[in-house]
């Protein structure tokens, strides 16, 4: 069962669309598609990365449980979107064991049993087919100088995952999850996700970070992880920090790839 912290409001859709526009090119480069692959994309969301893989020449089945997400999702002639749960994907009997690639990004951190999802991904690909996982480990973020109130806000945000039974550090487990699901791990790496003042993308990345927190405000304040004044002051501190000429943050998306044994 998925437990997506941020909901599917229009503001969240805007944040996700912006995020995809900032990271999709790096994800495609790392995926190293040759063209002609059959791909199943677990947790396709707005379908932007699914559509990008289709644009690169793949035929893609995107699986997403949110009707709201699907209603706003990108479309492409080589992309078929299906509504369904990642733990019980809507694949036809003849499709199991037939895909060249199974892919998931920012999904496993939002499910209570990521191992069950990865097992389904391995089942979906042919022997020697690729299983690619991209996800977060929230322990790797570094800001300097640190925005006022940021450390407490970031800790509170991570604790909202725990309260849902999810793992904010799942990125470090990706290789183990592949191995446990019956895939042979073959590669792991980072996709850098950060910037400093002076880079064109810096304001958009900071606004994405602020949107991440604002989408979790009800959970953070409602669970008394921070009070409303502390939360609002930390957001103001983040936006003030973004105006500094020496502000910077470093983050990375964890990447792991395996092949079905």
Query: What's the architecture, going by CATH?
Result: 3-Layer(aba) Sandwich
Q: β content, as a range?
A: 15-25%
Rg calc: 18 Å
Helix content: 25-40%
Figure out the total of helices: 9
The CATH topology turns out to be Rossmann fold
Supply the helix-strand structural class: alpha/beta
- Mean pLDDT across the residues is 94
* Main beta sheet strand tally, sense and closure: 7 strands, mixed
Q: Terminal Cα separation, in Å?
A: 27 Å
The CATH H-level superfamily is Vaccinia Virus protein VP39
How do the strands line up in the largest sheet?
3-2-1-4-5-10-7
Q: Kindly provide the name of the CATH class.
A: Alpha Beta
Q: pLDDT below 50 for ≥5 consecutive residues: which ranges? A: none
Spell out the helices and strands N to C: HEHEHEEHEEHHEEHHHEE
- What overall geometry do the principal axes of the alpha carbons give? globular
Number of strands: 10
Give the total of domains: 1
Model description:
The chain is of the alpha/beta class and about 260 residues long. The chain has one domain (about 10-260): Vaccinia Virus protein VP39 (Rossmann fold), CATH 3.40.50. About 40% of the residues lie in helices and about 25% in strands. The protein has nine helices and ten strands. The protein has helices at about 10-30, 50-55, 65-70, 115-125, 150-165, 175-180, 200-215, 215-220, 230-240; strands at about 40, 60-65, 80-85, 100-105, 125-135, 140-145, 185-190, 195, 250, 250-260. The strands form two sheets. The chain has a seven-stranded mixed beta sheet, sandwiched between helices. Strand 1 (about 40), helix 2 (about 50-55) and strand 2 form a beta-alpha-beta unit. The model has no long low-confidence stretch (mean pLDDT about 95).
């Amino acid at each position: 069962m998925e437990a997506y912290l941020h909901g599917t409001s229009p503001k969240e859709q805007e944040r996700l669309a912006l995020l995809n526009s900032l990271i999709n090119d790096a994800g495609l480069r790392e995926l190293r598609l040759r063209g002609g692959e059959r791909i199943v994309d677990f947790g396709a969301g707005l379908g932007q990365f699914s559509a990008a893989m289709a644009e690169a020449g793949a035929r893609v089945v995107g699986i997403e449980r949110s009707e709201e997400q699907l209603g706003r999702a990108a479309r492409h002639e080589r992309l078929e979107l299906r509504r369904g749960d990642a733990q019980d994907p809507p694949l036809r009997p003849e499709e199991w064991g037939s895909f060249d690639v199974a892919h998931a990004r920012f999904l496993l951190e939002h499910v209570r049993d990521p191992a069950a999802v990865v097992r389904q991904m391995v089942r979906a690909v042919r022997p020697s087919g690729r299983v690619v996982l991209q996800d977060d480990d929230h322990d790797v973020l570094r800001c300097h100088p640190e925005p006022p109130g940021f450390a407490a806000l970031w800790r509170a945000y991570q604790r909202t995952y725990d309260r849902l039974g999810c793992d904010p550090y799942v990125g470090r487990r990706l290789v183990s999850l592949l191995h446990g699901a019956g895939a042979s791990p073959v590669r792991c790496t980072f996709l850098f996700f950060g910037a400093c003042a002076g880079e064109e993308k810096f304001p958009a990345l900071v606004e994405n970070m602020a949107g991440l927190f604002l989408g979790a405000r009800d959970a953070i304040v409602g669970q008394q992880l921070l009070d409303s004044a502390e939360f609002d002051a930390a957001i103001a501190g983040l936006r003030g920090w973004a105006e500094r000429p020496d502000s910077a943050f470093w983050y990375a998306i964890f990447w792991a790839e395996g092949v079905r044994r």
